[in-house]
Amino acid sequence: MGPAPSILVRMRTAYHEQLEGLNTILGEMCDLAGAAMARATQALLQADLAVAEEVITDNDRMNELSARAEEQAFALLALQAPVAGDLRGIVSGFQIVADVDRMGALALHVAKVARRRHPAKALPEEVNGYFAEMGRLAVQLAQTAREVLTTQNPQDAIRLQEDDDAMDDLHRHLFTVLMDREWSHGVAAAVDVTLLGRYYERFADHAVLIGRRVVFQATGQTPEQYLEVS
Amino acid sequence: MGPAPSILVRMRTAYHEQLEGLNTILGEMCDLAGAAMARATQALLQADLAVAEEVITDNDRMNELSARAEEQAFALLALQAPVAGDLRGIVSGFQIVADVDRMGALALHVAKVARRRHPAKALPEEVNGYFAEMGRLAVQLAQTAREVLTTQNPQDAIRLQEDDDAMDDLHRHLFTVLMDREWSHGVAAAVDVTLLGRYYERFADHAVLIGRRVVFQATGQTPEQYLEVS
């Protein structure tokens, strides 16, 4: 009976090291998604083709990391016999991969609109301020998502929702500008602005989802359950 | 040593029954998503408020099933010690929950546009045909996703991609109509059409993703890997 506990301890240690490894990859993916959205916004506002191309090329790196994260999560599931709390962490890991992957894809969409309209600017001057601010919020949300992945702090994870409320407000205001009778930039620009607005909004939604999953990783509860008891 | 194999056999049987139970819930969710999109399209084309309200109310059922599916998947992970192939099935199960959940949300978005514009029609007559056909394709994709979940047939699962190509073609044509100088329905209608087109396209994308996950469930390979060796 002697060696059993020490084997268990070693298994648990190896397990937690691997789980940290997974979270490190997920954090790196959040960084990439945030950086991609920062540059995509720059490309959009300044009609900067080189920057748009960079975002598009760098997306390969996201796909690589995404594949590595899933492999790591499968290895964690398969190699040890995880306990309930660990299972939450791993399953959330898979879901976070999907969310941050999608954030990268949305930044890519923004960059592609900038490229498609180059050398013209995709955005009428009038809405530049909205997109500059939505870009800033998006990058901030990606950064907070990255931080809570590391700290596993449920309060901070829930706070992602508040930043998203600011994004939703901006998005709504943007629509009032579009719907205004004075909109003089034509239908093609309206279509671009509509889709671009949606990309930023969805980027923010996925960051919020990451926050929700971190709450579940850390507490085993949904944010609503957690707020009710705390 | 006698009883051990029989215990294992019973564990495996219970396991497979539970996995089937999970896939049954996922199939039911696909049915719901397809039915929701069928009625949302009807509400949109006919400015039918009652049908739009039905779609919105019935979304609660989707959320219930979604929660049940996740519980079932966690129970499968936690209660037995699954082997590698089983793990693929369960993890894919979690991912499919997220996809089909999103399909339901997109049908809900369509219904809400119909409700918001009622008693007016959200769509100019000119694009009705596109949306009727996109609706038909979306419902068909949800149905095929449901079938391959049950049959686990990788060839059929891959074929979802082809139906999605038809959706992408329609979506592209829709944009040429929007961008045409002759578009006479104003910016507000263009914004609605842009977002609605995006909802149908994303609905189809998620059905394709379910197909990809079924290929992985059934073969342990991505569709690309599977096609290369088969």
What is the element layout, followed by pairings?
The structure is a homodimer of 230-residue chains.
Chain A (H helix, E strand, L loop, with lengths): L2 H44 L2 H31 L4 H34 L10 H24 L2 H26 L6 H34 L3 H7 L1
Structure commentary:
- Chains A, B: It is found in: Cytoplasm.
- Chains A, B: Pfam families: PhoU.
- Chains A, B: Residues 27-113, 132-214 form the PhoU domain.
- Chains A, B: Keywords: Cytoplasm, Phosphate transport, Transport.
- Chains A, B: Homodimer.
- The structure is a homodimer of 230-residue chains.
- Chain A is mostly helical and 230 residues long.
- Chain A has a single domain (3-229), classed as Methane Monooxygenase Hydroxylase, Chain G, domain 1, CATH 1.20.58.220.
- Helices cover 87% and strands 0% of the residues of chain A.
- The radius of gyration of chain A is 20 Å and the shape is elongated.
- The relative contact order of chain A is 0.14.
- Chains A and B meet through helix 2, helix 3, helix 5 and helix 6 of A and helix 2, helix 3, helix 5 and helix 6 of B.
Using brief descriptors, characterize the structure shown.
homodimer, 230 residues, mainly alpha, Methane Monooxygenase Hydroxylase, Chain G, domain 1, 87% helix, 0% strand, phosphate transport (chains A, B)
